[in-house]
Amino acid sequence: MPIYRTDLPGVFIVEPQKYEDNRGWFMETFSKRDLEKEGFSKEFVQDNHSFSIQKGVLRGLHFQNNPKAQAKLVRCTKGIILDVAVDLRKDSATFCKWISVELSSENIKQLLIPKGFAHGFVTLSDEVEVLYKVDEYYSPEHDRSIRFDDPQIAVNWGIKTPILSQKDLSAPLLKDSDCNF
User: Fold this and answer.
1) Assuming Cys at both sites, which of 100, 102, 125, 136 could form a disulfide with 70, CB separation 3.0 to 4.6 Å?
2) 112, 101, 118: which is closest to 158 by C-alpha?
3) Could you tell me the fold of the domain covering 3-176?
């Protein structure tokens, strides 16, 4: 399965191969061996699945603080999203830089996001399902958010009035958060 580096160290775009015939299709969506070739040797321990009813739902920017930080392998199985990863590692040359990738059920791309990054996405269609693997269990005590519109990061979501949860509406700016990367 082809795996491509991005401008952010440790963030990869994974493109599974789809094999189609008259019966339908088959694809391998995860290969530990292929990821290990790129230096990613974490073991995923939990799968998460979200459903968003309509276009314009924005979820993020989310992360878990150390020692329960999570790496994620994200894919969209229904609909289309703009998926975003933000480097929150204070010692990184790409601190506060972000990357966005369109993930959809059609293009079958996935985004591999290492620990030390915030993650979020906005739905670009109605009825969107997103699945992602994580390498650390959910920990409410370590769960954190930062504002999707933080001017220090300035993500271009391509939307003016997103639909947000109360958690995301009340998230702090990065400068006011206790992010410990």
Assistant:
1) 136
2) 101
3) Jelly Rolls (2.60.120)
